[in-house]
Amino acid sequence: MNLKKLLKFLSFFSFFSVAAFVAVLVYTTIIFNDNLEEINSQINNTISINNNFLNISEIPEIEEYKNNEKREIPTHILEDFMKQFPHIAVYYSNIYNDFTFTHNPNRVYFAASLTKAPYAMYIFQKADNGEINLSEEHPFLREYFAGGSGIIQDKYSFGHMFSQRQLLGYNIYFSDNIALRMLRSIHGLDGFIEFVQSLGINGDNVHNITYSRTTAVDSGILTRAMYDYINSNEQHSKEFLNHLLNNHYGFIRSDYPIASKTGWFDGFGGAWHEMAIVYAPSPYILVLLSNNYGGEDTEIFNKIADFIEEFNRNNF
User: Fold this and answer.
1) Which stretches within 174-249 are classed as H helix?
2) pLDDT tens digits, residue range 18-38?
3) I want to staple 175 with a disulfide (CB 3.0 to 4.6 A). Which of 99, 149, 192, 262 is the partner?
4) Which of 249, 291, 286 is nearest to 78 (CA)?
5) Quick one: fold of 76-315?
6) 3-state DSSP assignment of residue 186
């Protein structure tokens, strides 16, 4: 092969090599961008208040299902079923029929983060009454730092400014301990203690919010108060609901939307709890409390939740 033919061959080969490289690069870029868009979408759906996992519009129009029929309810079915779970406390109440079932109702548990939701409701109500402005910003100071659950500790530096609205969201759906500390520094405890006492709950059980004590009955009362607030159509009630619907750490499952707050801790006797509003056609409140920290009772929680959902479906 002479030099002229060799150069012609090399030019031909180089052209197709470059073309192939460009094609691979374009294809890879398209695939990467598609994946990047998907990843960004997942991140946005996780942390954005405006892009929630579950939208309020997905909750069924439950008023049309309201049924106040009074009849004998087979409570013994629930009693027999719960005998196998002596360490768990339960509060189950069908909202429209005033039927309530409890198991170990007055056993006292360390509340952990469960109390963050009613504390947030108390703050939202202050905003409804014009006492505070949720757009008001506050700096993240070193004194507010806390480990445990939440995203502020990893994503933000000291000095970052947060609105109270942002803190309320993080406090609920990320159960953020720093967000709670910042809110507590603004609003204190006295007003919240008066609030829970107005519901008939012993205010002496409120300690620093997450160090409070609770029972299935007390948590059931608070969850009912949350439901009533959500349905009050106050200015911030649906914002509160949206945060509960997007609880990032829900333990129980359901065929229906769940607005809930969970709490867990490995000290003070242990805590693994959930307080929930289940938006079934005939909606109900379900509170499950356990001192088995570490997720050991998650499957038991789901067994109980499944059983009560079926009971609720068959009887209401």
Assistant:
1) 177-187, 190-198, 216-230, 237-245
2) 444 434 333 433 333 333 333
3) 149
4) 286
5) Beta-lactamase (3.40.710)
6) helix
Domain ranges of the chain: 76-315
Q: Any bridge partners for residue 92, and if so which?
A: 101, 286
Q: CA–CA separation, 198 vs 131, rounded Å?
A: 19
Rounded Cα distance between 67 and 5, Å, is 91
In this prediction the pTM is 0.80
What distances in angstroms separate CA 8 from CA 4, 18, 19, 207, one per listed residue?
6, 16, 17, 85
Residues of the chain with pLDDT under 70: 1-71
**Which CA distances in Å does 201 have to 192, 196, 214?**
11, 6, 9
Residue 114 DSSP code: G
Residue 210: closest CA among 110, 88, 89, 105 = 110
DSSP 106: T
Q: CA-CA distance, 273 to 259, in Å (whole number)?
A: 14
* Secondary structure element (H or E) that encloses residue 171, with its range: helix 164-173
Residue-level pLDDT at 249 = 92
Residue 150, pLDDT score: 92
Q: Which is nearest to 111 in space by CA: 169, 11, 236, 196?
A: 196
Assess contact for 215 and 108: CB atoms under 8 A: yes
